[in-house]
Design goal:
Layout (H helix, E strand, L loop, with lengths): L1 H6 L19 H41 L9 H7 L2 H27 L18 H45 L5 H21 L2 H23 L1 H48 L8 H45 L7 H65 L5 H7 L1 H41 L7 H54 L11 H32 L4 H8 L4 H37 L5 H60 L6 E7 L2 E7 L5 E2 L6 H21 L6 E4 L7 H17 L2 E4 L3 H10 L10
Helix pairs in contact: 2-10, 4-9, 5-8, 5-9, 6-7, 9-10, 12-13, 17-18, 18-19, 19-20
Length: 795
């Protein structure tokens, strides 16, 4: 209190401090009045600052408005754009230009394609023929060309046959002296001539001449009688030559007729080409191609006219809009697009200027309104300040008189207020100390009572006794947690024992079911014994199959119908007899092989001799055919060898690829299947069966099962594991595809469904996993077991 009075300046003035004791009661009133005065002063100062700032804003707004260019009347561009609906017309005009331009380009391109060589058309000429006629020319020309080729080939064959016949006749007459029919006719004519001379003269000279002619004719006749077969063959050869020559002549006539027809078609094509100014070297095929291009050019020209007619209204509106905009713009636009861009730029600039001026005017008016209001509030605040100052002076004078000045009290009233607040804090602290002491006494009494109930010796202080009690409580909590853990372990062990007992009963039932097919099922109660019996059974089945195979071989060898007949045939034979028969058959077989070898050698010799035969066309044809067949057989054998080797190499490559990539796929499938079955099938393996591999699942006991031997739910789990492994392998290779499943959990129990939901969550971590279901419990299980809540879509 003394320090506070000293700060107020009372001690320095020589006044008695006791005279201010009564003024402490009015501190709150002084404080409120002083705070009101301070707020009035601050409010007036703030209003003054705001008024100055608003005056600056008004000045800035007036300057900005003065800096804007004077507002001019708009040139009417916006009205023109609005009247022509420029926003709708611009895309329609662009589309019309594009359509007509594309049609014009197609027409020009089609017209350019009509050019041939140096001949170029500036317009589409009239085609003298139709496409149908040109197609008929091409078809007729092609057919005539084919017939001409065939006729030429046939004529050449006939000429070759004629030449071959002449060669055969020449070879036949050259190898032996054969009197031909013409020679025989000549000898007979000479004989008749000498006989006529001899009849006329009847002298020795004519008789000798007649005798010589007669002998020559007789000799020729005898020779022809001895060469009857050769003469017949020669006549056949001559007939074949004549027939071939006649056929060749007919073929030549046919060729001339076909060439004349082909020439007529080509002349017609040349005449049509000359009519339109093209060169006369076009073939019918080239003329057809030109006619087709002419039709395409005609269609393109028609499409151009249709496009121009359809788009003419839009193009005319665009031209009118461009003309009006050109009159309003400072420069002449090139096209409608540039005119619209320039018009929009001018309209936007004018609109921006108008908006800027309107905004500046609004800003100036608002600033003037705010300044007027702020000046009114400033006057009000200044009046409130004067009133608050007068109230403060009056209050200080009324309560303190001349001991303390009002201006000094404005800055030194805080120590008195702090002193008052300290007095309040002291009273509150004293109250809290009393409450804490009472709480401490109650705590000590409660700890002492609890220690007595637990039989703990009291410590010197209550805190030490509480620490001992806390240690005892922690030990009890640990013991309780351990007991609860042991109870849970016992329950789990009992459940596992129950499951194992169920599995044992199931295995016993399966063993009993399998043992029921054996003769004495009562003795087959052990699975190991059952496995031994099954192994012996398999060996017996194999031995029986071997016995049946050997019996079949014996029956085939002996020609018997059944084994009893075979035993009857062998009943009187001993082992020595059988061995002797075997050796005899062996020697017979060797003799047969020797005979076969000799026959092959004889055949080879005959073939060699046959190949040396000359002059027989049939034999030569057979030799040629044999050589052709041998070449075909060799080619087929090489092709078969190539294909078989390729097949084997491809099979080996596929097997190597499968062995290389199967390990990762198998491992991923094995892990996923073990997780889905909760360890019931910890591993997977494969078994070779003929040309394929069979997937087997191995359970905890080491027994393997095929997919057909599993339950429906387990098969679905294996299917899901295979799909999940395949998806994982695709993801590892950089391919991410969605993973879809449609209610494959419907045969799962809750444990299997939980495991499957976790697998789907793992797949969703690698990509997108989508599961379709109409079972609500599947959704509930997925929501409860998944760490990342799945997104649910209800359809």
């Amino acid at each position: 209190m003394t320090r506070a009075l000293h700060d107020l300046g009372v001690a320095s003035s020589g006044a008695d401090p006791r005279s201010l004791v009564l003024s402490v009661g009015v501190i709150a009133t002084l404080d409120q009045t002083r705070e009101a005065l301070r707020e009035a002063i601050a409010h007036a100062a703030a209003e003054a600052r705001e008024a100055v700032a608003l005056q600056h804003r008004v000045d800035a707004a007036q300057a900005a408005l003065a800096s804007l260019p004077p507002q001019e009347d708009a040139p009417g561009i916006a009205d023109v754009l609005l009247r022509f609906h420029a926003d709708d017309l611009a895309p329609a005009h662009a589309a019309a230009l594009q359509a007509t331009g594309a049609a014009r380009a197609r027409a020009a391109r089609a017209l350019a394609e009509l050019a041939h060589g140096t001949v170029v058309f500036d317009r589409i000429p009239d085609c003298p023929t139709s496409r149908i006629a040109a197609s008929e020319w091409v078809d007729r020309h092609r057919a005539l060309r084919a017939d001409l080729g065939a006729a030429t080939a046939r004529r050449d064959d006939h000429l070759a046959d004629r030449a071959a016949s002449h060669a055969q006749a020449e070879a036949l007459t050259r190898s032996r002296t054969i009197v031909s029919d013409s020679d025989a006719k000549a000898l007979r004519a000479a004989r008749d001539e000498q006989w006529a001379k001899h009849l006329a003269a009847l002298d020795g000279r004519t008789a000798a001449a007649f005798q010589d002619a007669l002998l020559r004719h007789d000799a020729a006749t005898e020779a022809r009688l001895g060469q009857a077969s050769e003469l017949g063959q020669l006549r056949q050869i001559e007939q074949a030559a004549a027939e071939a020559e006649a056929r060749a002549a007919q073929g030549s006539q046919r060729i001339n007729a076909l060439e004349a027809a082909i020439t007529r078609i080509e002349e017609a094509v040349k005449d049509a080409a000359r009519q339109i100014g093209l060169a006369d070297d076009l073939s019918p095929q080239e003329w057809l191609a030109w006619v087709e291009r002419h039709e395409q050019a005609r269609d393109a020209a028609l499409s151009l006219r249709e496009a121009e007619d359809a788009n003419r209204p839009v193009l005319d509106r665009g031209a009118a809009l461009r003309a009006e905009l050109a009159a309003l713009l400072p420069v002449d636009p090139v096209d409608l697009g540039s005119a619209l861009n320039a018009a929009r730029s001018v309209a936007d600039r004018d609109r921006a200027q108008r908006e800027t001026r309107a905004k500046a005017e609004d800003t100036l008016r608002q600033a003037q309104r705010d300044l007027a209001g702020r000046q009114a509030r400033l006057a009000t605040a200044q009046g409130a300040e004067r009133a608050a100052r007068d109230a403060w002076q009056q209050l200080v004078a009324a309560h303190l008189g001349a001991l303390v000045s009002a201006d000094c009290l404005m800055t030194t009233l805080d120590p008195l207020r702090v002193l008052r607040e300290h007095e309040v804090a002291r009273a509150a602290a004293e109250q809290r100390i009393s409450a804490m002491q009472a709480d401490q006494a109650r705590f000590a009494a409660a700890v002492e009572a609890l220690a007595r109930t637990q039989g703990i010796t009291l410590r010197p202080t209550a805190a030490q006794t509480y620490a001992a009690l806390k240690t005892l409580a922690d030990q009890a909590r640990v013991t309780r947690d351990a007991a609860q853990g042991l109870d849970r372990d016992i329950d789990a062990a009992r459940a596992e024992r129950a499951r194992n007992e169920d599995r044992l009963r199931g295995i016993d039932q399966e063993v009993a079911a399998i043992a029921a097919v054996f003769p004495d099922p009562a003795t087959l109660t052990d699975i190991d014994l059952l496995r031994q019996i099954a192994a012996r059974t398999q060996r017996a089945i194999a031995d029986r199959s071997l016995l049946v195979s050997r019996q079949r071989s014996v029956l085939l060898e002996l020609g018997a119908t059944d084994i009893a007949a075979a035993r009857d045939q062998l009943a009187g034979l001993s082992m020595a007899d059988v061995e002797a028969a075997l050796r005899s058959n062996g020697s017979d077989l060797e003799h047969a092989e020797t005979t076969l070898t000799q026959a092959i050698e004889a055949r080879t010799t005959a073939e060699r001799a046959l190949s040396q035969v000359r002059g027989d066309a049939e034999i030569a044809a057979l030799v040629e055919r044999r050589a052709t067949l041998e070449l075909q057989l060799e080619e087929a054998a090489l092709q078969h060898l190539e294909l078989s080797l390729g097949h084997r190499l491809a099979s080996d490559a596929i097997r190597r690829y499968r062995d290389t990539h199967r390990s990762g796929m198998m491992t991923a499938t094995e892990q996923c299947f073990a997780s889905l079955t909760q360890g019931a099938y910890p591993s997977l393996t494969t078994q070779i069966e003929k040309d394929s591999e069979i997937l087997l699942a191995v359970d905890r006991n080491g027994a393997s099962k095929r997919a057909a031997e599993m339950s429906k739910g387990t098969r679905f789990q294996l299917y899901l594991a295979l799909r999940a492994a395949a998806h994982e392998q695709l993801v590892s290779q950089g391919t991410r595809l969605p993973f879809f499943c449609d209610d494959i959990f419907e045969t799962f129990d809750e444990d299997r469904t939980s495991a499957a939901c976790r697998v789907m969550e793992a797949i969703g971590g690698r990509g997108q996993a989508i599961y379709l279901t109409h079972h609500r419990h599947v959704v509930d299980i997925a929501m409860s077991v998944c760490d990342v809540q799945p997104v649910l879509h209800e359809l």
